[in-house]
C-alpha cells in the first residue's frame, strides 16, 4: 500500500530513534508537524529557526545520531542557514528540511517562493551543507534521502538539506526504509607507519589538539599517545575539551585564551608538532611567530582542504577518520598509557593560577571572569557538559575552567555563530537528561538568541545558562580599542537586565556579583528541575585573553 511522503519521512525518524524534532511551523511543512504528533515524536517549537537549527545540532552531538530541523519556505528556510553553517563546522549530521509552496505552480508568482524563481534555498544551503537538493517528485524521495544520509553520516559528517514542496509532501509513493548508514567502514590511512617513525624520532614534540580531536571522541587514544611518548599537550580554543587540564603533560591552551607556558614551550625549539583535528586557523594560532615554527608537522585530519596550508614546515598528513587512525597508530606502535612526571611548565602554571586567584580575591572591587569560572568549576560535578558561545566569556572559560573529564567542553573558534551555544545546550540536554548541561554565554549572545530560553522553559528542559554580563560586546569592544585606540558601536547605552529577561520567560534567575553567590546559585540550579539563568556581573573593564588577534587598518 502506498504512503504519503510526509508519513514515510516521519516513519524514518521514528525508526532512527529520533525522539525530538526542532523547528517553527508554516503552511508548506504543516503535514510533517501533524504526523510527528501522530507518531509520538515531540516537536520542539523554537522561537527562531536558527535557534531550532542549533537545538537540532546539539541533540545530534549529544545523542550521537541524526538531528532534524524543519523550517517553512522562504524566510523560514533562510533563517536556518546560519545553524547549518555552524553544524558543518562541528561535523554534525543534521537534516534540514525546508518547504516550498507548490512544485506544480513553480514559475508563477508565489508567496515565500523557495524555488529557482524566488529565494532559491537549494543554492543558498549548498555552501553550508554537504548535500542540498529539491525533491521535485515523490518518487525521487528514496534516492535523494539516500544521498543525504550517506553524506551526513559517513566520513567527515555534516549537515544536509532537502527542500520538499507542499504538493510533493502530499504525494503517495511506494513505501521503503533507509537505515542510518553504519555499514560503511571509516577511512584508515596507509601512512600510519610514517607517523610512528616521526614520533619515535622526535626529540622535542608537542601534541596540538583542535576541535576535531573533541569531535572524534578519541580521548583514550590521545592520552595513550601523549603518555607513551611523553609528549606535552596543548589545546586550541575548540580543542579545550579533548584532554584533562589537570594531567601532568598538559601545558595549557594555545591561541586565544591560551597560556604563557604553552607559548614559551612553542618558542623552545619544537622538532615535531603533532596536529590533531585543527585547521590551524587564525584564532587557533593567534600570536604564532616565526620562532615557534616546528621542524616538521604530523597532521591528522579528515579533509585535505586546509591541511599543510598554514605552517610552512614539511608536513606529513594522515588523512581519514581521526579516531580510527589514532587507534591504528597505537596498535602499530604498541603504545601504552603510563605514568608521567608533571612538566615544569604545568607546575608553574598551577602555582601562578593559585597566586592570581588570591590576588583577585584580596584586591578586586568587581568580579573577574576568572573568578567566575573557577567558582563555576567548584560547584559543578566533573561530568557536567559545557557549551561555549561566541565571545570573550568563552575565551575566559578556555583559560580558567578546568577540564576534569574529557568530552565535557564544546566550543568553536572557526564559524563562531553568536547565540549558537544557547540552542546547542537545549538540544544536548534533551539527549543527556542524566547530566548537567551548562551554556556559557554573554549578554550580547543573549540578545541574539536568548528567547530560546523560553523554548527550554516551555518544554521543561533544565539547562543552566551561565551569562556573563558587562554591558557590551566585549570581544569586539576590547579588540577594537586595543588595536585602534577607540571602539564604535560595541557598548550598550542601556544594558540588558538578564535576570528580569529570564524571569519574564518563566526561568528561575539569579544575579551574582561574588564567587560565593555563583557557587550557591549553581547548587540551587543543580537541584532544580527547571530552566535556570545565572547572571554574572563581571568587571566591564577587565581585559579578555583575546588581544593577540590583531586588527590592522593599513
Keywords:
20 strands, 6-stranded parallel β-sheet, 22 helices, alpha/beta
Mean pLDDT equals 92
How many strands? 20
Number of helices: 22
Helix content: 25-40%
User: Going across the major beta sheet, what is the strand order?
Assistant: 3-2-4-5-7-6
Instruction: Detail the poorly predicted runs.
Output: none
Class per helix and strand makeup: alpha/beta
Shape: globular
Strand content: 15-25%
- Largest sheet, described in full? 6 strands, parallel
Rg for CA atoms: 24 Å
How far is the N terminus from the C terminus?
A: 69 Å
Question: Would you mind describing this structure in some detail?
Answer:
With 554 residues, the chain is an alpha/beta fold. The protein is 38% helix and 16% strand. It contains 22 helices and 20 strands. The strands form 4 sheets. A 6-stranded parallel sheet has the order 3-2-4-5-7-6, sandwiched between helices. A 6-stranded parallel sheet has the order 11-10-9-12-13-14, sandwiched between helices. Helix 3 (49-63) runs parallel beside helix 5. The radius of gyration is 24 Å and the shape is globular. The model has no long low-confidence stretch (mean pLDDT 92). It comes from Cohnella hashimotonis. Residues 5-113 form the Thiamine pyrophosphate enzyme N-terminal TPP-binding domain. This is Thiamine pyrophosphate-binding protein. Keywords: Thiamine pyrophosphate. InterPro entries: DHS-like_NAD/FAD-binding_dom, THDP-binding, Thiamin_PyroP_enz_cen_dom, Thiamin_PyroP_enz_TPP-bd_dom, TPP_enz, TPP_enzyme_TPP-bd.
Short overview:
Belongs to the TPP enzyme family. This is Thiamine pyrophosphate-binding protein. By secondary structure, the protein is α/β, with parallel strands linked by helices.
